[in-house]
Design goal:
The protein is α+β, with helices and mostly antiparallel strands and 359 residues long. The chain has helices at residues 3-16, 19-37, 50-64, 70-92, 95-98, 100-113, 121-130, 133-136, 138-157, 163-172, 192-195, 199-211, 220-223, 238-245, 247-255, 287-317; strands spanning 46-48, 182-191, 232-237, 261-266, 270-280, 320-323, 329-333, 345-346, 349-350. It has two domains: 40-179 and 286-359, Orthogonal Bundle (Triger factor/SurA peptide-binding fold); 180-280, Chitinase A, domain 3 (Roll).
């Protein structure tokens, strides 16, 4: 090998051992790999895990006695997403640290865990935040959600409806605020607990007696089993009867003929025979009579619409990922809530809410 060749080979050896070359080569490999395989997916703002979905399904089944169908499960997940978005916003405003109710709850939790350590309340609170209790405690979550919803709904309270808007609401929902039909009745009661399997036979026997016309309404108590509720009932609507006796009784009583015995009509307690003394037809109530109820209903619907609008704004501003049952991501989205909006109308257009800011 010539002297020049030896020098060139030495320079190449020194170059191959140089750290800068190693760094450049590693960087080039990583760059090519990222171009080939693509960059990592962006981290979601809200992540709903498969285990959370399973918990939602279990809670539903405990409450209803059956598993949710696909539509119901989607509604459960949507509600969870909405709650997580509201919680995120509450934390961004610092409410999890400034709220006195939450502070007392976290200190109480720490006292339960370490009752005799002599720590100050400030120290207990610091420990609670370090341990993530402000995120895991259900009472804290409920408190933050309650405050957020009340704060968002305050827009409706700060902008009450005019009389014209209430009158328009009355026109759209006249049946809801109408005076219901009411009946005044006497009833003879046969107890399911007392007669058991013989209840149907006893009801048939009593029906035959009543059809003979020998039992006046004033004698109802003498033919009735003991009953906590009165034999003679004042003017009552279907809703009032339903709350006291059950809806089968309420429907049967409202359909009963006037001035005669009708039955047997089932209830939550047994069966009944009823005599209608008086029937007062329902009808539209004057605006002034229902103004307060109209305002409360309008405000409730308006608050709900503002909350739904806020949910849409939050969904549009954040990414949400839902884990599939197999463990993989079902989707990463940043779009508006697709659910329908039963908006309360102001004039001819649906009410909308601008983005809100913390007070």
């Amino acid at each position: 090998m010539t002297a020049s060749g030896a020098r060139a080979q030495g320079r190449m050896a020194r170059l191959l051992r140089a750290p800068l070359l190693h760094f450049a080569l590693i960087g080039g490999v990583l760059f090519l790999a990222s171009r080939h395989f693509g960059s990592e997916a962006p981290e979601a703002d809200i992540f709903i895990s498969a285990s959370e979905i399973e918990t939602l399904r279990d809670d539903w089944q405990r409450q209803t006695g059956r598993a949710p169908d696909a539509r119901e499960q989607r509604a459960l997940i949507d509600a969870r997403i909405d709650d997580e978005l509201l919680l995120r916003e509450a934390r961004e405003m610092g409410w999890h640290r400034s709220d006195a109710v939450i502070q007392r709850r976290l200190i109480q939790n720490q006292r339960f865990l370490t009752p005799d350590d002599g720590a100050s309340e400030a120290e207990r609170l610091r420990r609670a935040f370090e341990q993530g209790m402000d995120r895991s405690d259900l009472v804290v979550r409920r408190r933050l959600l309650e405050r957020m919803k009340l704060w968002i709904a305050s827009e409706a309270r700060n902008d009450p409806p005019s009389d014209a808007e209430l009158e328009a609401h009355h026109e759209r929902h006249a049946a809801r605020f109408a005076r219901p039909e009411r009946v005044r009745l006497s009833q003879i009661f046969l107890s399911r607990d007392r007669h058991g399997d013989a209840l149907a036979a006893e009801a048939a026997r009593l029906a035959a007696v009543l059809e003979g016309g020998s039992v006046a309404p004033a004698e109802a108590a003498s033919h009735s089993d003991p009953f906590l509720l009165a034999n003679d009932l004042p003017l009552s609507s279907r809703e009032e009867l339903g709350r006291r006796f059950g809806w089968d009784f309420a429907d049967g009583a409202m359909r009963a003929r006037d001035a005669g015995w009708t039955g047997p009509i089932p209830s939550s307690y047994g069966v009944h025979f009823v005599w209608i003394h008086e029937r007062v037809k329902g009808g539209r109530r004057p605006f002034e009579e229902v103004r307060a109820a109209l305002r409360a209903d309008w405000m409730r619907q308006r608050e709900g619409e503002i909350l739904r609008e806020r949910h849409r704004q939050l969904r549009a501003a954040h990414t949400v990922e839902i884990e599939s049952e197999g463990g993989g991501p079902r989707g990463l989205s940043r779009d508006a809530d697709p659910r329908p909006d039963p908006a309360v109308h102001r004039g001819d257009s649906a009410a909308t809410s601008p983005p809100m800011r913390a007070p």
